[in-house]
Amino acid sequence: MLKAVAEAHPIDQHDLHVTATVGVSIYPDDGREAETLIKNADTAMYHAKENGRQDYQFFEPAMNVRAVERQSIEESLRRVLERQELALHYQPIISLKTGQICGGEALLRWTHPVRGPVSPAQFIPVAEDCGLILPIGKWVLHEACRQARAWSDAGLPLARMAVNISAIEFRDVQFLKGVLTILDDTHLDPKSLELELTESVLMKRPESTESILKTLRATGVRVAIDDFGTGYSSLSYLKRFPIDALKIDQSFVRQITTTPDDTAIVTAVISMGQNLQLRVVAEGVETRAELAFLQAHQCDEAQGYHFGRPMPPDQFAKLLQAGVSEAVLH
Ligand code: C2E
Ligand code: MG
Ligand code: MG
Fold first, then answer.
1. Which of 182, 190, 200, 262 has fewest C-beta within 10 Å?
2. Diameter of the chain by CA atoms?
């Protein structure tokens, strides 16, 4: 069935392509009534979608456990904003040239009243699926900009506040207007805001992407590509779009000093960044050996547990005041 559907459909001189994802449930094992069978087939289909489109999957009872779990996260997520369960933590980004903190990344934290802390990797995909990422993302951007401005007013200027933007937010027609309004409301200098987008965002709808990125550039807001190297990399977009920085994904950094392939990838990304005049930031730096490698290869900036974990704002303010200790830089 999948093969048949995937064939081109010639309609009015155009070859149209559609793909399908199939979930299968079997009577009587997976249900005795039509309603249950359809519900379980639906659950199996969502699983197939998660594993990449154009696939099929048979229903398994364990899937229900996950579906219920997801449902419960979604329900609690609907109330996070009014119940003020969200907070931002900040992780320092270090300039390898000066050894100073040149930026901070805002990372979302959710403390569920019963479950306790829930990781963003767990709840952000759910928030994306049910559309809640839009109000949540707005809250994040507003809070990060407000905080950056407050630190600047307190004499603790942060050159760059980095904020993660989900693909769903970026595609929303109100996105650009939302960013500009928040900058206006919080009086943050647009130059000190950097939006982190993933490669997949840039690959779709290049015309509208280009126009949004150009408007951001004109206002002074910077753009970084997050998790660089893990997506469907098309290097042509690096030239086409106004981008300021590349963040090398931590999976490459992790193996810098042990796996020759990753050494080659990291070295190549750094020199490509230099040639295209893009700032290169290494993510997930955990050890002195990784730092030494990045310094030796003239990587611009680094972020990771070696310099500091994501921390609550009061702690980050203290770090901004004191600077990172000399000991971690050599
Ligand atoms: P990301 O943007 O790539 O953020 C970096 C992640 O790596 C963070 O995980 C950070 O805590 C972690 N990390 C930093 N240094 C190290 C290190 O040295 N070693 C290791 N093992 N990990 C390190 P976190 O906070 O759990 O966030 C995970 C992802 O969730 C983020 O990846 C980002 O994609 C997403 N995310 C977080 N906050 C937001 C947000 O406000 N909005 C959106 N749309 N996504 C967010
Ligand atoms: Mg990020
Ligand atoms: Mg990343």
1. 200
2. 69
